[in-house]
């Protein structure tokens, strides 16, 4: 049966070729008169690079909620690129946005560049307002991960960490919408002189999620805000798509892996080391060397892979050659794998396939 699957799936002229599980299954049934099980076809495809490297990768999908217990417990910061408007706005190219996840209170600072020292000074100015977070969440950009910014984090004893999140993205959209509306109303591209007015208006307007103004949230009404913000629902049983020990690829649409390739998942393989019961569930991964990856991964960001006994790994280039104990060996860089996995292999094991 595997031979038939292989023949049909790799035939670009066949209606069942290079397509989905169901199309291949139906094509085999029509060809042989026996329809294979869905699981057997799926297992075959999970062992094919041509399928797993180009599987459909999702960008928009449900993510875990960020639960914060009170005001000033966690801020989120980000940079908004405004380079298109720099000439009309005193060379301001970026907006540093910061939001308190709990109260939704926000700050914005104008920056001429995103150098580490520039961002650090701007964030210190935000802290000078008197509100110091316990934690700060940002992306992994060098504008935040540099000696100046990290020194500031140590000075104020702020725990700095990085994951993707939706709260800051939501504020950025809200703030920019207000800004675009203003610019349209005055038929102008100059916004720099009204940035703080727009921020103040946002902080003093009713926020849908907390049912009050961000500026009105304080220690006295934290409990009321918490109840409103994190309404508790009956917990659903968690169903895991993957199991501990499964081999997977990571979506190239996930931040650090996006490099503009036409394939949607990494060549490199990873192993699921832990399944975490959240809604939706997430996973911890290790690389081929057993090193733990930073952060957690959602199911739509992963593609299961089955490593068959005849699995062939592609070589990007041969970097060196030697003869060891009379046998020819080559030092290779594996296609799509980090350089730390470069290795010596026997020359006779290399094929042109």
UniProtKB/TrEMBL annotation:
InterPro entries tied to this protein: Chromo-like_dom_sf (IPR016197), Chromo/chromo_shadow_dom (IPR000953), Chromo_domain (IPR023780), Integrase_cat-core (IPR001584), RNaseH-like_sf (IPR012337), RNaseH_sf (IPR036397)
What molecular functions are annotated in GO for this chain?
Answer: nucleic acid binding
Pfam family membership, one: rve
Give the signal peptide range.
Answer: none
Q: Which SMART domains match?
A: CHROMO
**Where does it sit, as one GO cellular component term?**
nucleus
Q: Which residues form the Integrase catalytic domain?
A: 58-222
Q: Which residues cross the membrane?
A: none
Q: Which residues form the Chromo domain?
A: 313-353
Major location (coarse): nucleus
Q: What are the GO BP annotations of this UniProt entry?
A: DNA integration
Q: Which CDD domains match?
A: CD_CSD (cd00024)
Give the location in the cell. Nucleus
- Entry-linked Gene3D superfamilies: 2.40.50.40, Ribonuclease H-like superfamily/Ribonuclease H
Which protein, by its recorded name, is this?
A: Integrase catalytic domain-containing protein
Q: Which organism is it from?
A: Gasterosteus aculeatus aculeatus
């Amino acid at each position: 049966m595997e031979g038939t699957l292989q023949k049909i799936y790799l035939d670009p002229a066949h209606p069942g070729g290079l397509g989905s599980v169901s199309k291949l299954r139906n094509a085999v049934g029509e060809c042989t008169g026996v329809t294979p099980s869905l699981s057997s076809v799926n297992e075959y495809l999970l062992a094919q690079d041509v399928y797993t490297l180009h599987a459909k990768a999702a960008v928009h999908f449900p993510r875990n909620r960020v639960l914060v217990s009170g005001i000033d417990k966690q801020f989120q910061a980000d940079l908004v690129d405004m380079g298109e408007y720099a000439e009309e706005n005193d060379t301001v190219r970026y907006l540093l946005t910061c939001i308190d996840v709990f109260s939704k209170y926000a700050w914005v600072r104008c920056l001429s560049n995103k150098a580490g020292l520039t961002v650090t000074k701007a964030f210190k100015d935000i802290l000078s307002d008197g509100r110091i977070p316990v934690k700060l969440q940002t992306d992994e950009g060098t504008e935040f991960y540099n000696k100046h910014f990290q020194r500031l984090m140590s000075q104020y004893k702020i725990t700095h960490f990085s994951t993707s999140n939706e709260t800051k993205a939501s504020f950025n959209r809200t703030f920019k919408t207000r800004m675009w509306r203003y610019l349209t109303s005055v038929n102008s591209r100059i916004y720099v002189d009204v940035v703080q007015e727009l921020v103040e208006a946002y902080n003093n307007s009713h926020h849908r999620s907390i049912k009050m103004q961000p500026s009105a949230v304080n220690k006295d009404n934290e409990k009321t805000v918490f109840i409103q913000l994190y309404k508790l629902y009956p917990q659903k049983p968690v169903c895991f798509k993957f199991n501990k020990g499964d081999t997977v690829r990571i979506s190239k649409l996930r931040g650090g892996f996006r490099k503009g390739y036409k394939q949607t998942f990494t060549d490199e393989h990873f192993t699921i080391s832990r399944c975490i019961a959240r809604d939706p569930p997430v996973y911890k991964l290790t690389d081929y060397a057993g090193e733990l990856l930073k952060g957690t991964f959602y199911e739509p960001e992963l593609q299961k892979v089955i490593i068959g006994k005849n699995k062939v790994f592609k070589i990007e280039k041969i970097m060196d050659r030697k003869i060891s104990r009379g046998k020819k060996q080559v030092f290779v860089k594996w296609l799509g794998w980090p350089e730390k996995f470069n290795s010596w292999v026997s020359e006779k094991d290399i094929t042109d396939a």
